[in-house]
């Protein structure tokens, strides 16, 4: 199963910490505020716990989706192809 994490966080420091947590758990950036990757469910639960604590008491939002392989294969990418991590400035 793939895990997709998207977030809308106004604070630069918090947004950077969320991005670092996603990377630490093995996800890769797919958009400025989106990470995805295939991680075990136990690791996903741990990531959710970490991210939950990060945004607790804030007005920020993080959404975590679990996407199965067949659905992920139906993904369509439009526009300029994403080339992976281009810069840490995309945090």
Q: Could you characterize the architecture of this molecule?
A:
The structure is a single chain. This protein has 91 residues and is α+β, with helices and mostly antiparallel strands. The chain contains three helices and four strands. The chain has a four-stranded antiparallel sheet with strand order 2-3-1-4.
Count of distinct strands: 4
Largest sheet: 4 strands, antiparallel
Helix content: 25-40%
Mean pLDDT: 90
> What are the low-pLDDT stretches, counting only 5+ consecutive residues below 50?
86-91
Number of helices: 3
N-to-C series of helices and strands = EHEEHEH
Radius of gyration: 13 Å
Which strand-content bin applies to the residues?
25-35%
Query: Which structural class do the helices and strands define?
Result: alpha+beta
The end-to-end distance, rounded to whole angstroms, is 25 Å
- Global morphology: globular
Strand order of the largest sheet: 2-3-1-4
């Amino acid at each position: 199963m793939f895990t997709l994490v998207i977030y809308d966080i106004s604070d630069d420091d918090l947004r950077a910490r969320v991005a670092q947590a996603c990377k630490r758990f093995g996800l890769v950036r797919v958009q400025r505020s989106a990470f995805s990757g295939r991680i075990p469910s136990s690791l996903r639960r741990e990531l959710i716990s970490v991210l939950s604590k990060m945004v607790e008491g804030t007005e920020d939002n993080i959404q975590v989706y679990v996407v199965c392989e067949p659905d992920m294969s139906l993904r369509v990418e439009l526009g300029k192809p994403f080339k992976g991590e281009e810069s840490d400035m995309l945090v």
